Structures are given as C-alpha cells and as structure tokens.
Amino acid sequence: MEPLAKRLVDILALDNLWLKEVVVVTKEKQSSEVQTVNNYLKMSHQYLLVYEKVERDHRNEHT
Fold it and tell me: What ranges do the domains of the chain cover?
C-alpha cells in the first residue's frame, strides 16, 4: 500500500518544481471518525500541493 499523496508527488515530479508543503483541508467541526453513507466511505479531506519553482542547478540544495 502506498500513500496517495506520495504517489501524486512522484507522478507530478518536474525538474523545476520542488514540493514545498502539503496542506490537508477539512470542513469545520468535522468528526475525525470514519463517516459512511450507504456503506461507502465519504470524502473527509482534500490535499493542496504547494510547489516552489526552482532553478535546475539549485534543486540539489534542498536535499
């Protein structure tokens, strides 16, 4: 099993973009318990991937 956020980062990897942060967005006052509707999982959060544009030569400075 592979985390979805990691898989997305791997798929979207570009030479001049560096993943700066992953923001998890949820609705206000939402229970942290798993919610189901008709035995299907309900979407409880979304990801916002924030990238920084970097010069190709400077990418190695971030590792």
Answer: 4-58
